[in-house]
Amino acid sequence: MDYDIRDIGLAEKGRLRAEWAEREMPVLRTIKERFAKEKPLEGIKLAGCLHITAETANLAHTLAAAGADLTLCASNPLSTQDDIAAHLVESGIPIFAIKDEDEKTYFDHMSATVDTGPQITMDDGADVVAMLHKDKTHLLKDVIGGMEETTTGVIRLKALHGEGKLAYPIVAVNDSQTKHMFDNRYGTGQSSLDGIIRATNLLITGKTVVTIGYGWCGKGFAMRAKGMGAHTIVCEVDPVKALEAVMDGHQVMSMDEACKLGDIFLTVTGGMKAVDGKHFENMKDGAVVANSGHFNIEINVKALEEMSEAKREVRDFVDEYTLEDGRKVFLLAQGRLINLGAAEGHPPSVMDMSFANQALAGEYIMKNHSKLDPGVYTLPEAVDTDIASIKLGAMGMSYDVLTKEQDVYLNSWEVGT
């Protein structure tokens, strides 16, 4: 088996961490038990580009139980947990991922994964899809479908499809409610703060925390920061989302204003240069800047480097930039995903639902790919409902069911006041 990881000797530590995460993933466990009996992906080559974490290990085991011939690489140079990579290799799953790999190694690993000739792709940011459509088009003929995990990736896929170039159907797992409403809001909210605190050991209470972007991820982070006693500011380009942030109790202003006030900044926009050179010029001495958007282009790191006289690493994942006037700006995790660079990513109980959607999307593709034209699809609402139902049951919660009379009323027009 071909693979490239840091140290196979870390496998036992990774196995224990994967087992710990599995305790909080009852939905995926239920799916795995069924998949082990039915083998819906028997013999299918599946190439995945995901964060190699303890939670991802449980998804990998679920897909392997379904019969998939699975190969994985990292979807971010800093997000790999080396012990998990070792555990998966020892389990018989080829992994091409090393924490803090350089950019060349990152793309070499992705290339090795794609070269396995996948029939199904599984992406976290659409990098595998992009590589297939730009550099390895000869492999497209064998691909029957794919899955995409992130908001950023879905945006890229829709752009590719809009140009008429997307070669196969892809399920936008991110668009399922049991993914984006929970993973993005509660997962990103907690794990981003976790990453900032682990990297800096700063007290959040009393700090002015600026959230740049108020989608589901921004909502979760701003809510958690406010709950920890921060003075919260939100920056947005969408007036409707900006208004929502006001109603949620946050100050709202332009980044040109907020850059002068913030102690801690987090970008979650999906766009580029949300923090730019002009913002660094006006930041307080000691400002901390981090990113939880998928790619590291949300912070203009190049501009920061060009306007700095000195740079040094003062803590793990904390780079101190000294500007010409002596002010210092601290950049976390090189501007890459702070929650996976400096911490462990989303808690397993949240990824339980996200990865349940991934696993079921693979099954959906197998059953329906012959009927699907190239395009971006959402899983049926019934899948969302099933995942939520299993999750509630595992939490010891119950919910009401409509009577036949109530159901008829809600789906008819005849009965009025």
UniProtKB/TrEMBL annotation:
Location of this chain's protein in the cell: Cytoplasm
The pathway noted for it is:
Amino-acid biosynthesis; L-homocysteine biosynthesis; L-homocysteine from S-adenosyl-L-homocysteine: step 1/1
Query: GO: which molecular function terms?
Result: adenosylhomocysteinase activity
Q: Which InterPro entries match?
A: Adenosylhomocyst_ase-like_sf (IPR042172), Adenosylhomocysteinase-like (IPR000043), Ado_hCys_hydrolase_NAD-bd (IPR015878), NAD(P)-bd_dom_sf (IPR036291)
Reaction catalysed by this chain? S-adenosyl-L-homocysteine + H2O = L-homocysteine + adenosine
Give me the residues that bind NAD(+), please.
150-152, 184, 213-220, 236, 292-294, 339, 346
Stretch forming the signal peptide: none
Q: Does the keyword Hydrolase apply?
A: yes
Residues involved in substrate binding: T53, D124, E149, K179, D183
EC primary class:
hydrolase
User: Which EC numbers characterise this protein's activity in its record?
Assistant: 3.13.2.1
- What are the GO BP annotations of this UniProt entry? L-homocysteine biosynthetic process; one-carbon metabolic process; S-adenosylmethionine cycle
Similarity comment: family membership: Belongs to the adenosylhomocysteinase family.
Described purpose of this protein according to its UniProt entry: May play a key role in the regulation of the intracellular concentration of adenosylhomocysteine.
Extract the PANTHER family matched here: ADENOSYLHOMOCYSTEINASE
Q: What is this protein called?
A: Adenosylhomocysteinase
